[in-house]
Amino acid sequence: MKKGPDQVDMLTKLTGIPKEGDTILNAVPMCAPYSMMTSHKYKVKLQPGTLKRGKAKKVIKDLFSSLSKNEKVEGFLIKSMTDIELMDPIPSQGVKVVAPGIGKLQN
User: Fold this and answer.
1) Residues 9-66: pLDDT tens digits?
2) Around 3, how many Cα atoms within 13 Å sit in the side-chain half-sphere?
């Protein structure tokens, strides 16, 4: 199936860091190499570990919610993501969640 100009235009509008005045319509959880996510505002590093998917999802959602305290729209979109949406990108084996500021959240 070929992509039309409308679909290509839509893809170029996706961003990891919204600018002032951008209209945010949705949050999309995804999994990618950490080096590719450097330009994204909300990111965590998943490493092999002992944390189960459900607990990892909760830690990630809590971290992102704490990071979005000053942003009403972003905070709402993070809180409105379903458990299935958040757990799909997380590997089924045990993981360890690594991110700046996660130590404060766990304490």
Assistant:
1) 766 777 777 778 888 888 888 888 888 888 888 889 999 999 999 999 998 998 888 8
2) 8
Question: Would you give the DSSP letter of residue 70?
Answer: T
Please state, in angstroms and rounded to a whole number, the distance separating the CA atoms of residues 88 and 84: 6
Q: Is 46 helix (H, G, I), strand (E, B) or coil?
A: strand
Strand partners, 41: none
Q: Which residue has 């080096």 as its token pair?
A: 35
In this structure, which amino acid lies at residue 95? Answer: V
Strands 95-98 and 45-51: antiparallel
Q: Which residue has the tokens 């199936």?
A: 1
The burial of 73, by beta-carbon neighbours within 10 Å (0-12 exposed, 13-18 middle, 19 or more buried), is given as middle
